[in-house]
User: Fold this.
Amino acid sequence: MTIWNWLIYPLTVAEQQHHIDFSEHLLQTVQPGDPATLYWSMAKPSGIVLGFSQKPSIINPVIRESNAFPIYHRRAGGTAVLVGSSLLSLDVVLPPDHPFIHTDLVEAYRWFGEVWLQTLLTLGVQSRTVTPEEAHAQRDLRRDPAHRDYEQLMNRACYGSLSPYEIAIGKRKVVGFDMIRRRTGSLLQAGVLLQWDTGMLAQLLGHTDEEQTLLQQGLQDRAVGLDTILGREIQSDEVIAAFEQILIPDQRHRLTMR
Assistant:
């Protein structure tokens, strides 16, 4: 049986485009037999990252035209994410022969969700993984005339909707996922809400006063920060240490980039 090593990059704080480009580099250059890679990141300055299929017009035109707030595009799907000190991001790059790669794109997230579930439990947070059936039922509401407008508005933001095996506390998401799958390997991305303040996101994604009010209130019901659940500010290194201990309990399989 192959014993897989993990190559770990310590937390990198940098402009978001650096993170996007570096994760693309990791995915393009990974080879069969390479160790899987963990790349922890946080954006500075803050910005908004759109999903691959989202157009810049999703952003409030007043903010977009002022160029006052950085806007980025990731190469994975999904919808908009506010990046900055409130969001801890993780990119996991798997070589093409890694056993965690699953032929079913939905089931490819299952192991990731289970590790995050145990990570939050280690931190004292009782959470759950979102079932595929629950995620599909919410997606179907976006086609239901009775709910379509509201659900499509909430879906402008990644944390406004649920996807399979993401981590939620009750109905509120706390860890969101996306993925890029290529012949060279697989890239899974997680975003952990250390804090959740919907004010800026509502201003960025709401085009009218009504939309901004709905987004600010509605997104509070759709997601939650770890600080709210724990009743204290949580540091990124606490989350990183807990995740790595669950995923790689054997120190012999850790390779750390300095």
Remarks:
- Residues 119 and 242 are 5 Å apart (CA to CA).
- The radius of gyration is 18 Å.
- The chain is about 35% helix and 25% strand.
- The mean pLDDT is 96.
